[in-house]
From TrEMBL:
<dbReference type="Pfam" id="PF07345">
    <property type="entry name" value="ATPaseInh_sub_z"/>
</dbReference>
<dbReference type="InterPro" id="IPR038293">
    <property type="entry name" value="ATPase_inh_sub_z_sf"/>
</dbReference>
<protein>
    <submittedName>
        <fullName>DUF1476 family protein</fullName>
    </submittedName>
</protein>
<dbReference type="InterPro" id="IPR009945">
    <property type="entry name" value="ATPase_inh_sub_z"/>
</dbReference>
Length: 107
């Protein structure tokens, strides 16, 4: 019975660890994406920091990435940057890889 309890605790701990890491990766990806967009909009370092935080917050509006994509396209277009959804999705994909790499380097 002890082996079963130990195994159950280990599985629960792994599940928690995996979920926390997934959340961290997405938050870091969104921050990197915000920095990418801020650079395209030629924001100051202070504005870039604020904008990156706003992109992270935008992800809490609804499940999935559509809220972030919608925010970026709207903000970039309003700033006069010519961009389409495919370019934003490509950046999202690239920043996800970068965020995962950064997080794994910390572990």
């Amino acid at each position: 019975m002890t082996d079963f309890k130990d195994r159950e605790r280990a599985e629960e701990a792994k599940f928690t660890f995996d979920n926390e890491n997934a959340f961290r990766i997405i938050a870091r990806r969104n921050r990197l994406l915000g920095q990418w967009a801020a650079q395209k909009m030629q924001l100051t370092p202070e504005e870039t920091e604020s904008y990156a935080k706003a992109v992270v917050q935008a992800d809490f509006e609804e499940a999935g990435d559509e809220d972030v994509i919608r925010k970026l396209i709207g903000d970039l277009t309003a700033a006069g940057v010519e961009i389409d959804e495919a370019q934003v999705r490509q950046a999202l994909s690239e920043k996800a890889v970068e965020a995962r790499r950064q997080l794994l380097d910390k572990l």
